[in-house]
Protein 1
Amino acid sequence: MQETNIGKMVKNHTGGLMRKQQIAGWMFALPWILGILLFYAYPLFSSVYYSFHDFKGMTPVDFVGLGNYKRLLNDSLFWTSVKNTFAYAAMAVPVQVVFGILIAVLLNINIRGRGIYRTVVFMPTLVPAVAVSIIWQWLLNSQFGIVNYALNLLGIRGPAWFGSVQWAKPSLVLISLWTVGQTVLIYLAGLQDIPGDLYEAATLDGASVLQRTVHITLPLLTPVILYNTIMAMINAFQQFTLSFVISNGTGGPADSLMFYTLYLYKNAFNYFEMGLASAMAWMMFVVIMSLTLLVYRSSGKWVHYMGE
Amino acid sequence: MKKTLAILLTLLLSLSMLQGAALADDPVEIVFWHSLTGVQLEAMNEAVAMFNASHPGIRVNVEFVGSSGGANTGVTDKVIVAINGGNPPDCVYFDRFQVAQWADEGLLTDVTEQMEKNGISGDDFYDYAWMEVEWNDRIYAFPEEIDARGLFYNIDHLAEVGYTEPPKTIAELAEYNEKLTIKNGNLYSRIGFIPWLDQGNILTWALAFGGEPFDYEAGRVTVNDPKIVEACDWMAAWAEEHDVETISDFTSATTGGDFKPFSAGIVSMYISGTWDVANVRAQNPNINFGVIPVPTPSGENNKCYGGGWCYIIPAGVPEEKVEAISTFALYMTTGEGAEYVSNKCGRFLAYKELNEAATWHQGDTEYEAFIEMFNHTVARPVIAQGASFWYELKANLEKVVQGIDTPQNILNEITNKINAMIEAAEK
């Protein structure tokens, strides 16, 4: 009898403690919860609401149903921006992945001064995007830029880079390669995860460097490649700063840098079409989500997780 | 728990009482946003300090807010967000041509009463400045300055190739350009003239060629006017003849830094406005340059567009503050603040009385050249779609120059797009 009483007391006591701890836990998490509700959930859901309204100045006035979405589908500049964004992503993503792996493999070789090389590759990612844009605007200036000057010394006539419709997007891809350090870091971590004995065994069996890379390094790096591909894709679709700064907000030359997000911005802040801009944001969300799922689905066929 | 709550409530209550007591004596606080830098920033700060010293009941806090995307139209996106967020600044230094559209969208506070109370009317200002702040017979801004556009030319470069006079006609422009341009192999070391550099744009040349971009009677955009098509055809032909991609980099070179190619001596002539006289001098004190009206086909009938900046009060600012804000805005547009800034950075004021009395430009040939130009300066079309129309013209300039489509098609497209917006608004 007495025992059970004590048992009850203990239980009650710990129950109270649990509850207290729970409350404290929630209290500690509260700033974050409030933050996410206020600054993520609220704007997110209100933009769904706005996307169905004609929202221009202060308050959304008329409910237009799918009107904003229909208007976009009939807007030629909208389609230009879609094409530009896909074209940019189609160039930037594969180039970034290949280049990132290549650099990571090189930086993984045990040579003197490796730390310095790694720092050099990582450093550009610390430069703010606007500064990156302005630096490259000068480097790639066809007349006074150092790149074309160097090409000229070699007897090559450099392209007009940002002045040319054909070269504007490749120029941006080039800049995005300069800031590939973040992904290189992730690849490096992935490379160091690959057990050394696999290479030893392969070497003993007489596998060449190329064979080891193709049959060991790449397959075991695929989980990291999957992650970086998805991130690169999302970043490419959201490319805004470079084109905004370099084209001075116009999306030029001749709309060749008119990316989806830039057009979204212009609709919201130059044309006061907040509803239309919200609709654009949601269409983009659906597209990125589906593409991510697609890549993720396909990953079963090409991604190898160690230990499986 | 109850005790803590009680203590908290008491604390809050006493704090709010304290605040209430403080309000009674404290000056009205005004948050003022602008995007000025350099000399302009200094002048602005000094004028505001003067205002704060002479108006103990009001305290203006100047906040620098970065310009929206290098569009040189000041703070716009951040102000829209602030207004929609319900926490706008009290006053903003604003590019005037956008006032009509912002007023139409309900983003600005009506200041008609404040103007009347202070005995200020349209007659006190230059027409094209006043026109831009009036919307549906109400006033929505305090016009500060006026500007005009002209051809800046490097006197030494011209002399080098044997010219003592600047070009006055379109034909002369081409002729001068041929002589002034220097090309070494693939790279240009100097370009005579680029029609679309800086302030050279569709509207500049539309007016120079005698076109009418807007029909006020019909209330419709007429930017496909044959004369404007002619102006754009001329630009497109120039671009085709002169390797547009390469020389366009002379244009983009200006956006990254603040240094003008003209100041650097790599472009001999370009179109710009009043404000650039001070910029060019600051960037290159040794440059010897002159300014004349934008050349026209005949060399006569000069016409250009002008604008200028103003002070606005965003929508949603507490009503009781409007009077204090207006006092500040009037001080900066018609009072000592305006006078000070105008003297310090060479700004022509929209307020006639002060502008006519100003002595800072006397004997200064480059500035004096503009005074005559003000007589043939017009405002950009003042319509509810004014800002959109302007951005559309800006975005399409490159299409003309890059030869993406014929000028006729491009101008038709702009006309249809803006007129569709006007029609939709009329419904």
Note: Residues 2-25 of chain B form the longest helix (24 residues).
Protein 2
Amino acid sequence: MKKDSITTVKLTASEGNILTDGEHYGRVVYLAQGDNGDGWYEITEEEYQTKVKEAERIDE
Amino acid sequence: MSAFNADNIILISEKIATATANVEKVFISGNKVGYDLGFAEGYSEAAKLGGYLDGYENGKKDENDAFWEALQKSGTRTEYISAFRDTGFEYIRPKYKIAPTQRVSGQNVFYRCSNLKKIEAEYFDYSKKERGAYTSEGWYYTFALSPMLEEIEDIGMTPEDLFQSTFLNCTSLKKIARIRVDSQSTFSDTFRGCKALEDVTFEGEISNDISFKDCSKLSYESICNILACLSEDGSGKTLTLSKAAVDDAFEFLMGDGTPIEGSMTGIWEVAITPKQDAGWTITLA
């Protein structure tokens, strides 16, 4: 029998914050195998909403 | 019995006639005359009305045929760029099945159709559309900003390099029967604003970033289908799902409605682990 240990790294944003890597956004991030999560950081919900609204303005 | 019943009126007329037998001139009840004339006129008008309706329906059909003949070039049209853009169709039911072949034919076709409810497979076949070579030749804003659109049946949507804002802000869209993709397909704002989307089925491989962040009603089956389509090499690629959708879809309930403890984390993590191993990052927004 072969026994492997798999480590899943899950990042969860602090209350009122959003995680981003500069391109993607999320409250919870499940990292790819081998990714240490260094590229992810938190921004405030307000900053996130500003970016969402900017994107929406381009289309409408 | 109504005072204006025909028999009553006749009886009254007869009584008047008897009572005025010796009178030189008799004026018959206006009611009786009116009734008789009205009855005859009524039939006549009904017949005319029938004719009017037939004429109206025939005229409408002729106009409809003439419209589609012109729009579809008597069935020979092969490109439909922006064909129905900004129109008020509720359903688009052309005379000839729309089967575009030219590569620009996905661009803005149903853009901002304010009343459009459903795209029916019976009337559309995109399976022979040539693949686009430039951004705007893919599925470029194809259904975008159509707020009443609820369902898109399988109309043969073929793989394209670009699914740019294809369903952007289709805020009532619940079901997309089938989207065919391949390793070259990219997804930019494809499903942004699709807050009612429950069911979507992909066929093929998803190999680039894709986001369903606003799709908070996405079903368990749809999420599983998306995960199953993620490529075996997802290095540096990200799938974004709505946290609310995942929470709802992966929390299994017991018969009494209480959540099965750990079902969300257990089943969800089992579902995504192979994809994380394949290099995918999965974010819940």
Note: Helices of chain A lie at 45-59.
